[in-house]
Write a structure and sequence with these properties.
three-stranded antiparallel beta sheet; single chain; binds 2'-deoxycytidine-5'-monophosphate; Rossmann fold; 9 helices
């Protein structure tokens, strides 16, 4: 692919569809920056929890977002997430923060702050950005838009495997969490999770990571050479 053409690649989809893994792999192959937008909502949610800002107080959360410095540093497989100078990469993956991030991200004014930052981060192209609204709201003119999806049970199973737990109770908890997040992300008023009209849909239910990466690469090559 021409080094001169630095594309914006938007990858959206629900939790467990494989976005983070695919985006990180693809970025590595292309020499692009990988930006995980969900980590920004997670970091803000953590800060709100620490400072006891109610998760339904949109204005307080907006102010908190305005004064937070959230950095996404590409590393190996994914992003190191630094908030106000502190590495929060691990903490933001825990269940309490995951649930809080879903609530924090439902406020339009919070999203405005985050979307503006995400646009700055991707302004020069050469990025794979993943999230829920990248192709619809953050970069509606992205050259490549992919919508990844998979059966809800399969997505829950992947998350469960990632957690490394064996317990049936934990499996049930993860299933319930995915179902609740799907519902909230898809039905919220501000930028609900919907595919962009011009996104290419990739169903990852029966595909392994390599197969999905290859499929997405082919889509990128088609656009880059077109
Ligand atoms: O992708 P993730 O699971 O790390 O996202 C965490 C939460 O943030 C999730 O509930 C949806 C929300 N989110 C969003 O609303 N918009 C994005 N661009 C990315 C994530």
């Amino acid at each position: 692919m021409s080094a001169a053409r630095k594309l914006v690649i938007a990858i959206d989809g629900p939790a467990g569809s494989g976005k983070s893994t695919i985006a990180a792999r693809l970025a590595k192959k292309l020499g692009y920056i990988n930006l995980e937008s969900g980590a920004m909502y997670r970091a803000l949610a953590l800060k709100a929890m620490e400072q006891q800002v109610p998760l339904d107080d949109a204005e307080a959360l907006r102010q908190l977002a305005e004064k937070s410095v959230i950095q996404l540093e590409p590393s190996g497989d994914g992003n190191r997430v630094v908030m106000d100078g502190q590495d929060v990469s691990r903490r933001i993956r825990e269940p309490d923060v995951t649930a809080a991030a879903s609530r924090v991200s439902s406020h339009p004014t919070v999203r405005q702050v985050m979307v503006a930052r995400q646009r700055q981060l991707g302004a020069n192209g050469g990025v794979v950005m993943e999230g829920r609204d990248i192709g619809t709201a953050v970069f509606p003119n992205a050259e490549v838009k992919i919508f990844l999806d998979a059966d809800q049970m399969v997505r829950a199973e992947r998350r469960f495997q990632q957690n490394g737990s064996q317990s049936p109770e934990e499996a049930k908890r993860v299933q319930a969490e995915i179902a609740a997040r799907d519902e909230r992300d898809r039905t919220r008023v501000a930028s609900p999770l919907v595919p962009a009209a011009d996104a290419v849909h990739v169903d990852t239910t029966h595909k392994n990571i390599d197969e999905v990466v290859e499929e997405v690469e082919r889509i990128v090559e088609r656009v880059a050479s077109g």
